[in-house]
Amino acid sequence: MNIVSFFAGAGGLDLGFEQAGFNVVWANEYDKEIWETYEKNHKNTKLDRRSIVNIKEEEVPECDGIIGGPPCQSWSEAGALRGINDKRGQLFFDFIRILEAKQPKFFLAENVSGMLLPRHKDALQNIKEMFRNAGYELSFQLLNSSDYNVPQDRKRVFFIGIRKDLGFKFEFPTITFPKITLEEAIGDLQEGVLPALEYNKTNGSNCTIPNHEYMIGNFSTIFMSRNRVRSWDEQSFTIQAGGRHAPIHPQAPKMKFIEQNKRVFVPGKEHLYRRLSIRECARIQTFPDNFIFHYDKVAAGYKMIGNAVPVNLAKFLAENIKTQLETKTVNQTKKQKEIVEAI
């Protein structure tokens, strides 16, 4: 089945769908820092570099599905919480505009859990109604990536819609998987890591393991207000889009509590506290090692990875969408055949 992708980023969602057997024929991404990474890792996909607001419906290829994660900053609990009142939040409307015009068999849209906050209740209800009015049976659920072969606590909401004429509603699977630990995910990456160069520029080809470099610089008071270390036998904190807020490597002990909203690195162990590298973050987001991120400054690498949907979770949802579409289609064909034979 052919699908198109909006707000594609580096393509974590796209890669998961590809691994599930879908063909991503066309993708859209407006951020120029991401273009090289996307195109070099998705060589069979045509990348449209415009803003979605400038894309006409007829310019989007015919497809069986539309996927994407409209920008989440305006909904984020860590952000300004402006939601649909922010221009970025309003990009949901353009996603729905194109969905309604193209009428593919299904769609998937992903966003942060912050949109579930009470202050966004009316806006969220409006978005749900717009999806339904566009012609889709809507399923909606909050998922934690750590339940789906992703070594990370990462809660995100998913909208999945099936075109109404297909006669069924997507059912989120109830199956979950054992937790994957940081030891299992990145335990083999303890050697060869490099600090970024001055001004947090990349080491480039000097990294013996591609992208195995970490952001340097001070830690903010906000960062130091909470423990940022997870142990080897735990799952990672959420991988964020900002490198300065990347979790600390599990080689370090848990940060020492001083008072409310203030912690410090354990005295005498300060040398163990470094941010996770870009490659370690990519592993935690379940990107394969042959997926190479291209950037001049390491901040761009962290941004691409932190904004992505974990590949394993994307693959799991894609497989379930594919199975349900195929199963329902076979059942409908069988029923139609039985009706014809009965006549």
UniProtKB/TrEMBL annotation:
Catalytic activity: a 2'-deoxycytidine in DNA + S-adenosyl-L-methionine = a 5-methyl-2'-deoxycytidine in DNA + S-adenosyl-L-homocysteine + H(+)
Domain of life, source organism: Bacteria
Keywords: Methyltransferase, Restriction system, S-adenosyl-L-methionine, Transferase
Class of enzymatic activity (EC top level): transferase
SUPFAM superfamilies xrefs: S-adenosyl-L-methionine-dependent methyltransferases
EC number of the protein: 2.1.1.37
GO MF annotations in UniProt: DNA (cytosine-5-)-methyltransferase activity; DNA binding
InterPro entries listed in its UniProt record: C5-Methyltransferase, C5_DNA_meth_AS, C5_MeTfrase, C5_meth_CS, SAM-dependent_MTases_sf
Annotated catalytic residues: C72
BP terms from Gene Ontology: DNA restriction-modification system; methylation; negative regulation of gene expression via chromosomal CpG island methylation
Family the UniProt entry places it in: Belongs to the class I-like SAM-binding methyltransferase superfamily. C5-methyltransferase family.
Protein name: Cytosine-specific methyltransferase
Species for this entry: Seonamhaeicola algicola
